[in-house]
Structure to design on (226 residues):
């Protein structure tokens, strides 16, 4: 069974940093691209970033470029999102998702972790 | 960026009814279109990919259609467990973008 379990969320002050983790199991992690998707309270979904199966390629939405870094440790089957210079508008639930390829977007999602940016 | 416009924003339907949700892209997305279901307090679940391919384990009462810039999700014979929000998503080009969502309730 595919499982994605996020951790690392919480309350953080504007301008500070936070690192999210996503532990994967039930599939061969290093065969799949992975992604982060966020959802602000009572709002819709926004794609944040994607990393290729081997970590060689990364893609970001414009609003997080230069502030967020997606990475992965295939030996630990873990995906990360380093979030720096956090802003109030980054407040959201962050989901990690498996991204099988160009024909299938996000086929499995984690349960999500809440990040609140507030002073 | 490709804009995804989803309609209606909310929908009320009766058990057993057929429901259709529409999604319009701001440019041709060549069937790079997915539909997700999200129940309150839960993460999204993939229903449809490639505009009309049913994801593993999804009931056959769900179907997707469309091409170019116009796509739709149809739910036949609405069940109580289908009460949820539904989102379309284009993955033809980065940044991947979602529609604003449709909240489906029982009448």
């Amino acid at each position: 069974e595919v499982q994605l379990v996020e951790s690392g969320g919480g309350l953080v002050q504007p301008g500070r940093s936070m690192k999210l983790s996503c532990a994967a199991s039930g599939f061969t992690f290093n065969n799949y691209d992975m992604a982060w998707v966020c959802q602000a309270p009572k709002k819709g979904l926004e794609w944040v970033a994607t990393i290729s199966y081997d970590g060689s390629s990364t893609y970001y939405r414009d609003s997080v470029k230069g502030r967020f870094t997606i990475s992965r440790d295939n030996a630990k089957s873990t995906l990360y999102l380093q979030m720096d210079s956090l802003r109030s508008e980054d407040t959201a639930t962050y989901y990690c998702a498996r991204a099988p390829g160009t024909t299938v977007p996000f086929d499995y999602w984690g349960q999500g972790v809440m990040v609140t940016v507030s002073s | 960026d490709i804009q995804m416009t989803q309609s209606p924003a909310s929908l009320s339907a009766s058990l057993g009814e057929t429901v259709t949700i529409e999604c319009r892209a701001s440019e041709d997305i060549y069937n790079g279109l997915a539909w997700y279901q999200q129940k309150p307090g839960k993460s999204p679940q993939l229903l449809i990919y490639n505009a009309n391919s049913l994801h593993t384990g999804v009931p056959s009462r769900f179907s997707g259609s469309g091409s170019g810039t116009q796509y739709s999700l149809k739910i036949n014979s609405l069940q109580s467990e289908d009460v949820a929000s539904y989102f379309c998503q284009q993955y033809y080009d980065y940044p991947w973008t979602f529609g604003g969502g449709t909240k489906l309730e029982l009448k």
Observations:
- The CA atoms of residues 23 and 95 of chain A lie 12 Å apart.
- Chain A touches chain B at residues 37, 44-47, 50, 59, 61-62, 95, 102-112 (CB under 8 Å).
- The mean pLDDT of chain A is 96.
